[in-house]
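Issue: ligand-bound run for glutathione - logging full I/O for the record.

Environment: standard queue, default settings, no custom constraints.

Inputs:
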Amino acid sequence: MSELVLTIGDKNLSSWSLRPWLLLRHAGIPFTEESIRLDQPETRKILADISPAGQVPFLKHKIDDQEITVWDTLAISEYINDQFPEKNLWPTDGAARAHARSICAEMHAGFTNLRNLWPMQFVREGMRHLSTGGVQRDVDRINDIWTDARSKFGTKSQIDDGFLYGTFSIADAMYAPVVSRLVTYGPVALSPLATAYRDKIQALPAMANWGDGAKAELDR
Ligand SMILES: N[C@@H](CCC(=O)N[C@@H](CS)C(=O)NCC(=O)O)C(=O)O
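Outputs:
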């Protein structure tokens, strides 16, 4: 018996939850989803009781009578990659993989202006926000990252499905919440390669599915 259980937060709000969820869903890896409502009076206590870091997302892998818990988005992504090597969730080319790991680390540790001033509101549209200097710097850096990855690796890979490194990878999942923010708070000027990449991710069936879930949660 082997079962993956991913615990996530509200789909409209929880950008960190979207990342491993999209990774599993788009890669076609079966998993069970559990959800905790954030920003409720009881949220802190529930998270403190069941989540190692008191946050979502976290993953439980039940294998027979053993249970492995993994938390924090990058660690969850690495664990999924280890468990399903045939999915090639890191690019197979060494230079592309080094680039992908670098931009994932950069996303994990940075972009605080974008995160704080443009919080993910997955199903809201047309929220026009002034681009303060800090947000514009983050958007410019993301534009450079996407353009660089697509021009140096994605467009040159043997199979180019339009993802950052050609085929779907952890890096695409890590940057998916940024796509949502650019749609919600845009428009912002991007290079032609970055624009095409944003539209590619926004059009993924898994993104639509997450949006349906977010709408259903808002209606409850
Ligand atoms: N470094 C963590 C960040 C996770 C995080 O910030 N989760 C937020 C939701 S998006 C959370 O659990 N907030 C609830 C809280 O902190 O009380 C990761 O990479 O997974």
